[in-house]
Automatic annotation (TrEMBL):
Origin species: Caerostris darwini
Coiled-coil zones: none
Signal peptide: 1-21
Protein name, per record: Ig-like domain-containing protein
Domain Ig-like: 18-116, 172-212
């Protein structure tokens, strides 16, 4: 047997490991490291292709080192490809790692590439606190709305709002009105009205003449 034939046969017994795992977005842009930010609640589509290797390698996705998807197919160009769709990103996906693993043998370590998801998150709670209430108010603010709003300008429909109806207490203010023009002539009947403004409302009014 010829030496060259022996070498060829020996190489045929051992698989050639893949050379690269390539992660890309839906537009074919290559990705690595920190990616995004992507919006909470929006889908994220990624693809990974393996390059090199004999026999053709398998391609799988891991999320935080746990198997996420091991389905793949061979493209017309002969590359193994696994397409991953996260239909709705959740808050728990923030800073999670997605690893594409390409391998064709237990005899060599798999080739990997990893991305980390950065996200825009919606506010979850908005509350009026003591600090927000530390603002002087007057009687004209009584029963008006005090609102505190929070939102992420990068996200549509992310506004949260907390609203209080102000309950402002203030002492009585009195105004006396007369139904005739002043001065009033002796013997003329007049009607006096006492108008009060207070919160809480006063419960009793008294008329006094010369202090009695």
């Amino acid at each position: 047997m010829f030496p060259g034939l022996i070498i060829k046969l020996l190489f045929g017994l051992f698989p050639v490991p893949p050379s690269e795992a390539i992660i890309m977005d839906e537009y074919g842009q290559h990705l690595e490291g920190l990616i995004g930010p992507y919006n909470e609640g929006f889908p994220l589509a990624l693809a990974c292709e393996g390059e090199g290797g004999d026999p053709s390698p398998a391609v799988c996705w891991l999320r935080n080192a746990e198997l996420l998807d091991d389905s793949y197919y061979i493209t017309p160009q002969g590359f193994p490809r696994n397409e991953l769709l996260l239909s709705s990103l959740k808050r728990t996906d923030l800073m999670s790692s997605l690893t594409c693993q390409v391998s064709n043998s237990n005899l060599s370590a798999p080739v990997t590439s990893t991305v980390v998801i950065d996200m825009n998150l919606k506010p979850t709670e908005v509350h009026i606190t003591t600090a927000c209430r530390d603002h002087p108010h007057n009687k004209h603010d009584n029963q008006r709305n005090l609102s505190c709003k929070g939102d992420n300008p990068q996200l549509p429909d992310s506004i949260l709002e907390d609203t209080w109806v102000l309950d402002i207490h203030f002492p009585p203010e009195l105004e006396v009105k007369i139904n005739k023009p002043v001065p009033v002539f002796e013997g003329t009947d007049v009607q006096l009205s006492c108008i009060s403004q207070a919160h809480p409302p006063i419960v009793q009014l008294q008329w006094l003449k010369d202090g009695q």
